[in-house]
Model the fold of this input.
Amino acid sequence: MGKRIKKIKDIRIHHEGIDLLITWSAAIALLGIILWYSFDCKGPFYFFLIFLGIPYCIAVNFFRCPLRKFENDTEGVVVAPADGKVVVVEEVYEDKYFHEQRKMVSIFMSLFNVHANWFPCDGVVMDVRHKDGNFHKAWLPKASEENEHADVLIVADNGQKILCRQVAGAVARRIVTYARPDNYCSIDEHLGFIKFGSRVDIYLPMDAEVNVNIGESTTGNVTVIGHLKTND
Done:
């Protein structure tokens, strides 16, 4: 079972959502003022506040960006790259990068989860690729290969390679990836952001230890989902 071994120190709004939320706030305020002074009955005003206020609150929750710092030793550690629920833990044949069996862990993010993504381990980014595709429901098995996705291939500090795949869902329409080839990456840093519902897949070596089960909730950069075999 994944361990939660760090504290959430602070929460802010992710920069990916600031422009949208400011625009939305201004529109709500302007329309609210118009409705308030246009009708003697305040029913339309209150209906408007409820009609747009609820989705606005959902959007604010969606763009939360907790400030998290992993406080334990990161050697050999693989942390959850996203908040959500584990929907897949299985062995698969990965034929795009490794051409071998891999342990795959998939985390599904609902509309109510934080959608910032973290690097799963310390290492060097080898490759970053984006692939256009479909928008199947993110929890379906075919979503990993057929949906629009972005791949980040990392060489961990122990020399083993890990693939982190950001997958768009039926609602998600934009994947943002901050990773760049040849850059050093570390736990605590943001890998990217996926807007409005999606999943993240991690492909681990076969000798890695997986510490989560299907149905388990994860917290990005907090839950330890696995351990890589360390060099003796």
